[in-house]
Amino acid sequence: MTCKPPTPSVFTIHGIWPQYANDSAVPPYNSSNPCTSVSPTPSSQLPTELQPIQNNLTSLWPDLKDPQNLTVNMNFWTYEWRQHGMCSDYPNKPRDYFNFALQLRKGLNPVMGLTPGSTDTIQNFAAKVQNEAKAAPEIACNKRQGTTTVQLWEIRLCYDRQTHNIQNCPTPFSGACKNISPTHSISFPI
């Protein structure tokens, strides 16, 4: 994926995804096998539902392909709603679903104690984030396009569904970080 400038200087939201206790994803809503007894709000209603929080979403939950483009962002939010929101704790309240993610994000250090452009071991990145979040994250990596350089891709945080408190994630490393040593160095791209 290529990010269109301006690239945010702080961490943004990719999504908030319901997971089962065994750390497997709750599948998207399917009317023939529904994940909830509540009828989810159709995605066609998202523009109206999200209008009051649109500025916060654009700032903290942009589509990095074109962060200032409202159409691109709305398509991204619609995708996230269909994939995850319709089977969340807020299937008929999309604004509450998106606001919940915004509130979780606003309670965190915007850079999570990390320095853009730095290189460190996977375990040191995880320790710095754990110090900030007060819970063990899942560090996801990918490879820089056209190279073999492993880089930080996402920081995933887990939360308790009842208390909404951040909790230790069951999987410490994923993506390109999953099968390499925790002492392997990765870069934090700018």
Short account of what is shown:
The chain has helices spanning 46-50, 54-60, 70-83, 94-106, 122-133; strands at residues 119-121, 138-143, 150-156, 158-159, 166-167, 173-175, 185-187.
Q: Which properties best describe this structure?
A:
190 residues, alpha+beta, three-stranded mixed β-sheet, two-stranded antiparallel ribbon, 7 strands
Structure overview:
Helix content is 27%, strand content 14%. By secondary structure, the protein is an alpha+beta fold. The two termini are 14 Å apart.
Topology:
Elements: H1 46-50, H2 54-60, H3 70-83, H4 94-106, E1 119-121, H5 122-133, E2 138-143, E3 150-156, E4 158-159, E5 166-167, E6 173-175, E7 185-187
Parallel strand pairs: 2-6
Antiparallel strand pairs: 1-7, 2-3, 4-5
- H-E order: HHHHEHEEEEEE
How many beta-strand runs? 7
- With strands numbered from the N-terminus, the spatial order across the biggest sheet is 3-2-6
Class inferred from helices and paired strands: alpha+beta
Shape: globular
Mean pLDDT: 93
- Taken as a percent bin, the fraction of beta residues is 5-15%
| Range of helix content | 25-40%
Number of helical elements: 5
N- and C-termini, Cα separation: 14 Å
Q: Which parts are unreliable, with pLDDT below 50 for 5 consecutive residues or more?
A: none
Rounded radius of gyration (Å): 17 Å
Major beta-sheet overview: 3 strands, mixed
